[in-house]
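Running co-folding for fe (iii) ion.
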Amino acid sequence: MNFEALNKISYGLYLITTHYEGENYGFIGNAIMQVTSDPLQIIIASNKENYSTEKITRSQKVGIVVIGEHVKREFIAQFGYKSSKNINKFEGYTIQYSPLKMPIITENMCAWYDAEVITEFDAGTHILYLCKLQNGDFIDQNEPPLTYDYYRNVFKLKSPKTAPTYFDPKLKNLSAPKNEVYVCGVCGYEYHPSLGDQDHQIAPGTPFEDLPDHWKCPLCDKEKSVFHKK
Ligand code: FE
């Protein structure tokens, strides 16, 4: 199996939310598809390790926001690589509520929907939710939807471990390593010595090996030890 070939399957990127007992939960997912139009149904795959998964199972409702290309990296970092268990991911964002009371963020987004869960399937690492769409509309018709391909190629990011599209780099035949560029094993951030890291006052020209031990990934905040050579 050539796992790289799976990258040719197209996906969008979505903010998947729910609201349960007064709290908002959300994460970024790529595994959403419309499966029927009458009734209007979709399937969402959500990792059992996502804190939000348990909350969707309890609330039986989901909000979906189609993320736009102009979304900020901080949004991806906040909703894609952190857990609702530890922080309120929605802090600092303007929240609107759908008719099913699902939290919706509109900045740099294309469209929103809300849905009720009809049934769940256990797919091992993930739960598949079959949902009936109830409401939805455009947010900005001119904002292009962010595709997974764009996310990989322009944002230079990769799937977190909990994504259905994640694959273990050990499974892939790595080509000859390119020297010096180091990649975060958690979020895919690339450290380029020629650029340094302005956020952490690391001067351009600093080799990865010379970064201080307390240096952390500027995107997901993980230690130096999770990086590997590209
Ligand atoms: Fe990272």
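Result summary
The longest strand covers residues 109-123.
Confidence is low (pLDDT under 50) at residues 173-178.
Job closed.
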